Structure formats: C-alpha cells, structure tokens
Amino acid sequence: MAALTVSSVHVAGVVASARAPVRAQRAVNAKAPARVSASAFMGGAERRALAVSARRAAPARGFEVVAQAISEPEAADAVVESADDEAVCHLRGVHMSPYKVRRVLDVIRGKSYEECLIMLEFMPYRACEPVLNALFSAASNAKNNLGLNKAKLYVSEVYADGAGTMKRFQPRSQGRPFPIRKRTCNITLKMKERAD
Length: 196
Prior knowledge:
This protein is of the alpha+beta class. It is built from seven helices and three strands. The chain has a three-stranded antiparallel sheet with strand order 1-3-2. Strand 2 (153-171) and strand 3 form a beta hairpin. The longest helix is centred in the C-terminal third of the chain and has 19 residues, at 128-146.
C-alpha cells in the first residue's frame, strides 16, 4: 500500500503516487539556476593561488583610510572624558615570532596614524599585515568608543609579547628527530590623541 504525501505539487491539485514528491523536487531543482563557483573545480593549491592573487590585486587600503581620516568631519557632540584616553587593540595568537614583529613595531612607535599607514603599506615584512590590522582596529576603537579624531591619533605604546610555542619535529639524518618551534605572539597597540 503506497502512502500519499502532500507537497507543493499536490497543493496545485495534482494527485500522484508516493514517487511524485521526488519527481516534483527534481522539477523544482531543474527550474532553479545552478550556482556553482569556479573554486569547486579547483584543487587546494589552485584555490590558495587564487586567494593570494586576489589579495595582491586588492587596492592599498592605507591611502583610502588616510584620505578618509583627514577629510571626514568628526562628530561635534563626541564626548572625551580626559586627555589620558587611549584606544587599545590586542591581537592574540599571531602565528609569527615576536622578534620579527618587534622589528616592525619599533618603526611605528610614536608615529602619527597617517605615517604608520603609509609605512606599513610599503615595508617588505610579513609582520606588517597583522600590525596594520591592529592599527585599523585601534583607530576605529578610538573614533567609535572614545570619540577621538583619527587625524590627530598617534601610536603611544606598542609591544609584542611571546605567546605559546607549537612544537613540531622534522625527520633528519640517521632517523633522528629535529625540533621545530613555531612561535606565536600577542600584539598590543595603544593610540592617543596628540595635544595641539
């Protein structure tokens, strides 16, 4: 005995057997446009290469942010409690050695927001990317949470502390394991408004 079910086909007045909902679903799927991305046909390496090329092709964000920070009118009714207000951004677990990150942080310490953006855009180090993200975040925190003017911000304090170290082993000659330490760090960036 076949069980009858109710579907959108039955609501339209068509009564069918138990296999009708399957046919109706196939018909609905045939009418709907298929959305297949190009990455579905790529391997892992091709997908990574596509992502890297898309990242490199993206326009530099620094100049846009500098232009926006300078030309953007600030809210007149923004409340600033005291002169020691500082915006803070913490980046935790960055997969990079703190020594390599400190090389970048030493360059931007004490510089204005615009100078830091330009420097980080053009420095050749891989550590510039997470530091730039921290800088964007701290500036947004300063504007949205404290009501500070982005054009007057400067990096008051910045440091990188060592975090956990992932330990891995590389096989070497004569069957011996060679330790590899994959270091991580925590980046802290603080920004204040420069007094005129």
